[in-house]
Design goal:
The complex is a heterotrimer.
Chain A lengths: L5 H9 L5 H19 L2 E4 L1 H17 L9 E5 L26 H8 L3 E6 L33 H8 L5 E6 L5 H7 L2 E4 L19 E6 L2 H11 L17 H4 L8 E5 L9 H16 L3 E5 L7 H16 L18 H12 L2 H14 L4 H25 L2 E5 L15 H5 L6 H6 L3 E9 L2 E8 L5 H14 L24
Parallel strand pairs in A: 2-3, 7-8, 7-9
Antiparallel strand pairs in A: 1-3, 4-6, 5-6, 5-10, 9-11, 10-11
Helix pairs in contact in A: 2-3, 5-6, 7-16, 10-12, 10-13
Chain B lengths: L4 E12 L36 E2 H13 L3 E2 L2 E2 L1 E5 L9 E5 L5 E9 L5 E13 L3 E4 L4 E5 L6 E7 L6 H18 L11 E11 L9 E6 L2 H20 L7 E6 L4 E4 L1 H4 L7 E2 L6 E2 L2 H9 L5 H12 L3 H7 L3 H13 L4 H19 L10 H12 L5 H14 L3 H8 L7 H14 L1 H8 L6 H11 L6 H12 L2
Chain C lengths: L4 H10 L8 H16 L23 E2 L9 H4 L6 E2 L2 E5 L4
Antiparallel strand pairs in C: 2-3
The chains are: A alpha/beta, B alpha+beta, C alpha+beta.
């Protein structure tokens, strides 16, 4: 038997093909096996998982279960989890036990999911390759020598290796979509404000958005249903009703107007990726969608805009890590200044420090107007480009990344080459738009992702389009060699 | 020398808003709790937590703005002021920078000589208070974050004040106003109402301002006056000896009565303000503002104007009596019971009664005499039962023992002598006993009239009705 | 656009980060490259454009003034490096 998707796992639980405890044991065994090779998790919470699974089994038995009751889940280690170490993959928080749950964690807990552990990530979500983690890099299950992408690299690798049917993730400049593409899984970044940021350790507050990485769009719809919604503890959370995403999945593609982003098909795009993405487009056309080329002239300025706005917000957000109330504190500080400087220098890694310094500089006296305000103005131009485009088309389509996964260590020497990985994903963050990446092929044996971007609150439309495509293709169901989901949770052995 | 210099002062007043919970969290704001028991995850700046704005803090800021005739900003923005300090948990203070909730108002301040000084209010913005650090043993500070996140309005004046006295009068007026509005308890000992002063000097007639120093830690009206005067002298000394004043923050030390430079605050003054991405623009609708306007109480200036008109008081007296709602209410209660002479009521409330409160360190509410008791005394002056002078003695007895005026007057026999025959008899006896003085007076030494008044008062124990005594003496002494 | 070692030092000070001497040229180089990239923003005509601070045009919601947070000092201070008598301890604050 092969349990492939969250939908199938949930159905199996409902049908009592196996219990949540059996399923949880099977995934925990798989995680234990995978950990040395992939390093996808920072913390495994086996004991509490089994306890939660037992409670879920009760609910499954007494008929009070919801759609996700008993489903194992991995949370990105950026989400605060009460009583569980929450590290943000930083030395700064390597011993930090959160006293509270993030709203997203609470909601998924209330939905009955069973947390298996916390996913590795780039430190404080700053990175595109998962190489900045204090706990070491994550390896891509498709090829251990290449990166899984980042910052949600642990989440994407875990789902690709079927260490859980789903993993939560966050996206500030592409941190859900890029690793989803590089690991051959489905990732959705909802509209800014759709999912609460409360309890999600902030990187860049006006760009950060929580989402999920799953095998299929249907899985993503089921998860988003539980995650989304207004939270009075987050002022930027949006009080707009959450539609029934699963019900919208069947929306026909006939007449859907897809816009092809001119700016995404230029120089720098791997031709093999372009080929896969254009084939995917043809599939939607066969389903009745119309295609139109759309230009967003300011979109190429996304990367420089982002590298002002995100570091500026990060420099301020990370000022709370001062060695006083929580987090790393240096040994024997000689005075207050020494306490601050050494605690922070020791607690943060090089990329985090680089971004803090970049952000400090762009906000400092004499540079604020030239950098920060300028970037916020360009952000408005990019936003306006998107707004205009969505007057003509229903969705925008393009590649998620310019290349497939690159080798571990290949891009660490030059921050700019690393930053350019996010060239296609950052725009959606700047404008707060929902966007997805779904698997659409392979190049040189590594997964390729196609990206869909929609107007604000069009998650249902994105999921329906992705679902329609996934009914015609099986790229999303393929698993890396050695990581096939051919385990049988009901068997005594658990994992294969 | 110092006569050539003009002092220029602007004040930044911090008033803690009297909300039940903090500006961005649900922590209580009560003063004096055990350390860090009123600091929740938001106040502690825990990773992942977010601020949500307290509606009452907004309403109170708008109330203040309306009371000083200011512009209420329809779309104000919270910004982060970034600096590292142990009492500032997030490494930034949430404040307002470019778009404060209150802009451009003014306040009239009546000085002792009756002149009116108008002080411009540049702005008033909402922000969160910081925690407190206390020294704990050698080389260690201890941080209590109970105060962190308490809502404040910072009221920034124009540099319109020209003396320490004006600065204090302005500060007192703001103090009066925030308590009238019920938006701040005004408790300066507990730090609910604090002030920084920007002080500079310039040559009289010069247009350009001099370099200013910012004085911090001015937690009483007296300290404001002392610190400003000290600072002015310091700057004059520097400039007159050919030096230059440096722009800096100076801490007032009330024990040593000196100001000293705070270098530690200076080096971190690149605050890198930017709009707080965790908070959205605060948009106020006309209807909300009008509702707040409708809830305003009678303001000190309105009350003072009414007192002038209704009770015939001077501008200055009306100002003194309206300095607090409680004082004004006490006065009005007394005046209502002494309808024929509100001026007498005003003089007594401002005079002996206030002095007695002060002496015993009591608030209006703790007065040992009710308004009715004081009015009872004043009515005995009005109906000539006792003289004003005797009244002081009666008042002291009343205050000390909480007695009614009539009881004191009766038990001590202080009732005034108003019987013509009795007074004439006393006069006759005095004239007989002092033949030389009588002869001198009649020979033209008019000044001796006072001597006779004094003698009769002495012999009657001060109880002779002064006006009657005057008339009768004049007749009797006439040659 | 290139940043001098001196600028790097002053930024690091403002950000309260201790840098080892050998790190300074490394950050000077990488920040200079980042600001080279950021320099592309100059191409955009933005004179008439309002800066955009939030992705959605929303306004601030207000919370009712209620004290809802109970005292949880003991729990919250479990993560603290140094506390005594409920107070967080730091090297002496000099004013």
């Amino acid at each position: 038997m092969a349990e492939k998707t969250l939908a199938e796992v949930a159905a199996g639980l409902k049908a009592r093909k196996y219990s949540s405890v059996e399923l949880t044991r099977a995934y925990l065994a798989r995680i234990e096996q995978a950990q040395p090779a992939l390093n996808a998790l920072v913390t495994v919470t086996a004991e509490s998982a089994l306890a939660a699974a037992a409670v879920a089994d009760q609910r499954l038995a007494d008929g009070t279960a919801g759609p996700l009751t008993g489903v194992p889940i991995i949370h990105k280690d950026i989400f605060c989890t009460a009583g569980v170490r929450t590290t943000c993959a930083s030395r700064m928080l390597s011993n930090f036990i959160s006293p509270y749950d993030a709203t997203l964690v609470t909601r998924l807990k209330e939905a009955g999911t069973v947390m298996l552990g916390k996913a590795n990530m780039d430190e404080f979500a700053m990175g595109s390759s998962n190489e900045t983690s204090y706990f070491g890099p994550v390896h891509n299950p498709w090829d251990p020598k290449v990166v899984p992408g980042g910052s949600s690299g642990g989440s994407a690798a875990a789902v690709a290796a079927r260490l859980a049917p789903l993993a939560t993730a966050t996206d500030t400049g592409g941190s859900i979509r890029q690793p989803a593409a590089l690991c051959g899984v489905t990732g959705i970044k909802p509209t800014y404000g759709r999912v609460s940021r409360y309890g999600m350790i902030a990187f860049a507050s006006s760009l950060d958005q929580a989402g999920v990485i799953t095998v299929s769009a249907e899985d993503a719809a089921m998860t988003l249903q539980a995650m989304a919604g207004f939270d009075p503890r987050d002022s930027t959370s949006v009080d707009v009703p959450v539609p029934d995403y699963t019900a919208e999945l069947g929306t026909p593609m006939r007449g859907l107007r897809i816009g092809i982003l001119t700016e995404f098909f230029g120089e720098g795009l791997d031709p093999a990726i372009e080929k896969s993405v254009r084939e995917a487009l043809a599939a939607w056309q066969r389903l009745g969608a119309t295609v139109k080329e759309v230009s967003l002239p300011n979109l190429p300025l996304s990367v420089p805009t982002y590298y002002v706005v995100a570091p500026a917000e990060c420099s301020s957000n990370l000022a709370r890590f001062d060695g006083v109330r929580f987090g790393h504190r240096c040994e024997n500080p000689k005075d207050l200044m020494d306490l601050y400087k050494r605690s922070r220098a020791e607690g943060f890694g090089a990329e985090v420090k680089r971004r803090i310094m970049t952000g400090t500089y762009v906000l400092s006296a004499g540079y604020y107007d030239a950098y920060y305000l300028k970037a916020q103005r360009v952000r408005a131009l990019i936003n306006e480009d998107f707004r205009r485009a969505f007057g003509e088309v229903d969705l925008l389509l393009g590649p998620t990344t310019p290349t497939v996964a690159f080798g571990i260590g290949d891009k660490t020497s030059d921050p700019i080459t690393m930053y350019l990985n996010d060239i296609y994903t950052i725009g959606a963050n700047l404008a707060g738009l929902p966007a997805m990446s779904i698997p659409c092929g392979f190049a040189a044996g590594l997964p390729v992702g196609v990206q869909l971007i929609g107007p604000h609150f069009s998650e249902g439309r994105l999921l329906a389009a992705a679902h329609a495509y996934q009914r015609e293709t099986d790229f999303h169901l393929r698993t890396p060699a050695g990581w096939a989901a051919d385990f049988n949770p009901a068997s005594k052995a658990g994992a294969k | 020398m110092s006569g050539e210099w003009e002092t220029v002062i602007g004040l930044e007043i911090h008033a803690q808003l009297a909300t039940k919970s903090k500006i961005f969290s649900g922590s209580p704001t009560a003063y004096g709790a055990e350390p860090n028991t009123q600091a929740d995850l938001v106040d502690l700046g825990y990773p992942g937590v977010l601020p949500v704005l307290n509606a009452e803090a907004v309403r109170m800021a708008v109330k203040f703005g309306l009371a000083v005739g200011a512009v209420i900003t329809r779309r104000s923005v919270f910004a982060r002021k970034n600096y590292f300090y142990p009492d500032l948990p997030k490494g930034y203070q949430i404040s307002q920078y470019e778009l404060p909730i209150v802009a451009r108002g003014s306040l009239d301040v009546v000085m002792e000589d009756g002149t009116v000084k108008t002080v411009g209010i540049t702005r008033a913005h909402l922000e969160e208070d910081a925690g407190k650090s206390q020294h704990e043993g050698v080389g260690v500070s201890a941080i209590d974050l109970n105060r962190a996140g308490t809502p404040l309005i910072e009221i920034v004046s124009e540099p319109d004040m020209r003396s320490a006295k004006e600065a204090v009068a302005y500060m007192k007026k703001i103090h009066t106003l925030v308590r009238y509005l019920g938006i701040c308890d005004g408790n300066m000992q507990e730090g609910s109402f604090r002030c920084d002063a920007n002080v500079s000097i310039r040559r009289k007639g010069a247009e350009k301002f001099g370099t200013r120093a910012e004085l911090k830690n001015l937690n009483s009206f007296r300290f404001v006056e002392k610190a400003i005067n000290l600072e002015v002298m310091r700057q004059i000394d520097i400039l007159e000896s050919g030096g230059t004043v440096v722009q800096e923050t100076r801490l007032y030390d009330s024990d040593k009565d000196e100001t000293r430079s705070m270098r530690s605050k200076e080096e971190a003054n690149d605050y890198r303000y930017f709009p707080d991405p965790d908070l959205l623009p605060v948009v106020l609708e006309e209807r909300f503002i009008e509702t707040v306007r409708g809830s305003l109480p009678e303001l000190p200036d309105q009350k003072a104007a009414r007192f002038q008109q209704q009770y015939g008081l001077s501008l200055y007296d009306a100002g003194v009596l309206t300095a607090s709602k409680e004082l004004a209410a006490y006065f009005e209660a007394v005046a209502a019971l002494v309808p024929s002479d509100p001026k007498l009521a005003a003089n007594w409330v401002m005079g002996d009664w206030s002095a007695a409160l002060n002496k015993d360190g009591l608030d209006v509410a703790e007065s040992r005499l009710s308004a009715a008791q004081l009015a009872g005394l004043l009515n005995r002056i009005v109906d000539n039962t006792i003289s004003g002078k005797i009244a002081k003695e009666v008042f002291e007895a009343m205050w000390a023992e909480g007695l009614e005026a009539d009881a004191v007057i009766a038990s001590r026999g202080l009732r005034q002598i108003t019987d013509t025959g009795a007074i004439e008899a006393e006069i006759d006896a005095i004239m007989a006993a002092n033949p030389k003085q009588l002869a001198d007076y009649r020979a033209g030494k008019d000044k001796l009239f006072g001597f006779f008044v004094g003698q009769v008062m002495k012999s009657t124990g001060g109880k002779a009705n002064p006006a009657m005594l005057n008339d009768l003496l004049k007749k009797k002494l006439a040659p | 656009m290139s940043l001098s070692p001196k600028q790097i030092e002053s930024i690091a000070h403002l950000a309260r980060l201790e840098l080892k001497p050998e790190e300074i040229p490394v950050y000077a180089d990488s920040l200079s490259r980042i600001f080279g990239l950021v320099g592309e923003l100059d191409r955009a005509q933005t004179a008439q454009v309002e800066p955009m601070a939030h992705p959605l045009e929303q306004v601030q919601r207000l919370r009712a003034d209620e004290a809802t947070s109970p005292n949880q000092r003991e729990l919250y201070q479990r993560n603290a490096p140094q506390v005594e008598g409920g107070l967080y301890l730091v090297p002496k604050v000099i004013e």
